[in-house]
Specification:
Two copies of one chain form a homodimer.
Chain A (H helix, E strand, L loop, with lengths): L6 H8 L3 H8 L7 H13 L6 H8 L4 E7 L11 H16 L3 E7 L5 H7 L5 E5 L5 H13 L3 E4 L9 E5 L1 H14 L5 E4 L7 H16 L9 E2 L5 H13 L6 E4 L2 H13 L9 E6 L12 E4 L2 H16 L7 E3 L2 E3 L8
Parallel strand pairs in A: 1-2, 1-3, 3-4, 4-5, 5-11, 6-7, 6-8, 8-9, 9-10
Antiparallel strand pairs in A: 10-12
Helix pairs in contact in A: 1-2, 1-3, 5-12, 8-9, 10-11
Chain A binds a DNA duplex (30 and 30 nucleotides) through α2 and α4.
Chain lengths: 341, 341
DNA sequence: CAGAAACCCACATACGTATTCAGACATTCA
DNA sequence: TGAATGTCTGAATACGTATGTGGGTTTCTG
């Protein structure tokens, strides 16, 4: 027999009907222990597996989640954002533990991903990973809500968030990072990263940065902020922009580790030493952060926990249970780049 | 209407039969241009999408590929191997271009992944990403072959390879890296990485390392090889092991960038300067390689091309076309860690 | 103008599973 | 002993799509 065995084949061999096979293998209590054993033995021997397409079609659920990386309006050419890549591992792992399959896709804003997945019944819900808060994106979220599609996203957490959001306490992270720099003597701290509402997560970090300075009685100097997105090159350019503008600073709080790494490269090119000339603190705690020289002090986002929460929130939503928006704590990881001992 | 629209709904509205809708939307030439337009308009208006489960069930193909990370017998605790993570981006992208969906999973050797995917008809084929060449793994590959499952894997390319394999020219990479170090004056070059047939890719790099020395009339000293797997810690430990053993060396060829990065950390702890005291060359060209201080000279594996080739080879196999095993070229990327100008 | 060809479409059915409903049989109780 | 209860299983059917087959109309050809 070259054909893949079906529940009918098992049924015939076991001398029962197809429905009984289905019931036996799905653990229904209405089938006697004896016949169940017999059916299971035969199924195992034939290497039988349930056809997931037929099963999904009938049950109207796929036991599959979709993970969607949506690109920035200013996309990073090199591939998937390292931050989300770090989260991927724990999402994959959690899905596996929860016995869900995981479908992955990467799409532009322009595409119809909001229709593709749940609508075409390939997944029961969607996890959205992306940056930014732009109109076309919000419109898609609205449509997802309206369709009743199950989805969760990683992002900026606030009261008005659309749908279920898991994020981290960006304000607190920014506050702690900045306070740490202040505690170790820095007074003129630059901020590298966009600081406007189109980048809500960066903006929260920026607000934390401002607040920490105010609390310490330090005046916030707007010129010390330089725009940067989450790429190494962007961090490099931001430092150059500040220096070209004649801005003086003795420390940097970078809104992401990638930016910090680029900044360190630029500082090195200018002959400046980290942390002696310039102290620096990053954000994210990417794997790369511990491998720089000097190792980067940073704010840790707990990727492992984040992936788990995203998956679990989505599953709860699928089951029509409450799935609450939540912010994870941000934790300062002290290494060498900040000059603390 | 709250229900998801079906082809019957479209048919009714268009005044045709369901099969006509199916044919119209799949571009069959047997339906007139006029009715096709009408059907398409209605479908669009209702936000109709084909139910992929029903479609797959009927067509007996899913238009989905599965990507499987299988873990090492000595798994990296921190998540997915950064090397494979780098490949993921291009696999995702290529799948998207080829209009295939991508299912991702991460499994232990012990699980039944070899049955799960194609057998349960969730995917048409499997891409395997993992390291090593151990018995339980080979047994699974045998079984996949026997089942007639479509699969390709990234790995060690040789004549006896089981199934379709895409890999890189590890021997040549090892040769070039070592030759480069020799050309810049190194004579006592250490090799960090396992050097036995259980790690066939590392072993090829090691053989290239040996051959380059022989070609240059340098005697290969076995004591200069230290075992290491693909983790930063492992590279760190390997250097310490060499130094604890009193082995002298003026350069390092690391079998992977992660190992090289760990080695640089260890060297730094011993007060040794890279490249002045010890020159070092890595392998892979991970994103992290360009961010170290000094930036790491390494052998580049073209991830982008690799992912593309894996996907395309698998698709060819699914279509019963020839899918040949192939090795990608390895290219030396000169940065600072080798001391070349 | 008869017959062939071309064109378009509807009917019937299969893909493999899960579930509803009802029936068979055994067991218990009055 | 007959009815009631309970336990297990089978028959029928639905999920939504894709495709082989055949029928009806129109157009072309000799």
């Amino acid at each position: 027999m070259s054909r893949k065995p079906t529940s009918f084949d098992i049924a015939q061999l076991a001398g029962v009907s197809q429905p009984t096979v289905s019931r036996a293998l799905s653990g229904s209590p209405t089938v006697s222990e004896q016949t169940r054993k017999r059916i299971e033995a035969i199924a195992q021997q034939l290497n039988y597996t349930v056809d997931k397409n037929a099963s999904s079609l009938r049950k109207r659920e796929t036991n599959t989640l979709a993970l969607l990386f949506y690109e920035d309006p200013t996309p990073d050419q090199t591939g998937i954002n390292p931050f989300f890549l770090s989260m991927l591992g724990s999402v994959v792992r959690t899905c596996s533990l929860r016995r869900y399959d995981l479908l992955i896709s990467m799409q532009h804003m322009a595409s119809n991903w909001h229709v593709e997945f749940e609508e075409s019944r390939k997944a029961d819900g969607i996890i959205l990973l992306g940056h930014g808060d732009f109109e076309p994106y919000r419109a898609k979220l609205d449509q997802l809500m309206e369709q009743g599609t199950h989805f969760v996203r990683w992002g900026h957490v606030n009261e008005r968030s659309l749908g279920t959001v898991i994020g981290c306490d960006n304000f607190r992270g920014g506050y702690d990072a900045t306070q740490h720099l202040i505690a170790h003597g820095s007074r003129r701290i630059a901020f590298l990263g966009h600081a406007n509402e189109h980048y809500p997560e960066f903006f929260d970090r920026y607000r934390g940065y401002c607040e920490a300075q105010r609390s310490a009685g330090i005046k916030v100097v707007h010129a010390r902020q330089a725009d940067a997105i989450i790429t190494e090159q962007s961090g490099h350019d931001a430092v150059n922009a500040l220096m070209a503008g004649g801005v003086k600073f003795d420390a940097i709080f970078a809104a992401s580790d990638m930016i910090a790494i680029g900044a360190m490269r630029a500082l090195s090119e200018h002959g400046l030493d980290v942390p002696n000339d310039i102290a620096i603190v990053g954000f994210d705690d990417l794997p790369a952060a511990s491998m720089t020289r000097p190792p980067l002090t940073t704010i840790q986002q707990d990727f492992s926990k984040a992936g788990e929460m995203l998956v679990d929130a989505l599953i709860r939503q699928i089951r029509n249970e409450d799935a609450n928006t939540a912010a994870l704590p941000a934790r300062l990881i002290v290494r060498k780049s900040c000059g603390a001992h």
